[in-house]
Amino acid sequence: MEIFLETVSALNDETRIKLLTFLDTHGALCVCDLQESFGMIQSRLSRHLKILKDGGFLRVDRCGTWAYYSIRTPLDQFRSEALAEIRCLGIELPPLIKLSETGDCKL
Amino acid sequence: MEIFLETVSALNDETRIKLLTFLDTHGALCVCDLQESFGMIQSRLSRHLKILKDGGFLRVDRCGTWAYYSIRTPLDQFRSEALAEIRCLGIELPPLIKLSETGDCKL
DNA sequence: TCATAATATCAATATATCTTGATATATTAT
DNA sequence: ATAATATATCAAGATATATTGATATTATGA
User: Fold this and answer.
1) In this predicted complex, what is the ipTM?
2) pLDDT attached to residue B107
3) B84/A78 Cβ within 8 A
């Protein structure tokens, strides 16, 4: 019950649906990319990404100070069916602005 | 997006998961049966049942003053996969107390 | 080491959802 | 018609979740 509710509540938010769609479309992205693309502050995105990760939808790969988030594979049947539903929604996404490649994310 | 969130948020509550499981196990039941079995007040159940109905999981058949709720069939792929997940959770349910057959629900 | 960048987490506020008790509607029996 | 039952809905308070700004942590380069 716990786990199922964690999975479901991860899906129960518009921002998270958009993040899932965005990562599904563009592959692995770091928080700073999403921050720039979505125009949201970092702490908000970081929190939502954690919820999606804990819900079993995302994986995180650390590379230095960057945390690259991407759709976890393979997804189990329920999560992958959920993602399929989300793909059918035709959600409008903001353009990708990839700071981590243009050099604006320095370290 | 709207519709998907309505579907998902219907699943995002422990009471509703139990109600789904209960109806999945026992078939069509009226609100007064659920009220007695779950020991919850009527307005609370009525509200949750409406959310499950609006989320596409339940149908309602009116028979006089009774409203019989049951799992909608057929369920689409996502909802039916969700129900399959829920069946795997092994949720403990209260015993069925069927007032509508023992005559305690009079009219 | 020191400064800076990327990310995570915390505390406070804002917002949404759930629960309850009261009321409204509809159906049936007397 | 009147009374009683079943259900639905509303308004208020209780609880949970989301958002924000501030702070903490970690990694890198000068």
Assistant:
1) 0.93
2) 60
3) yes
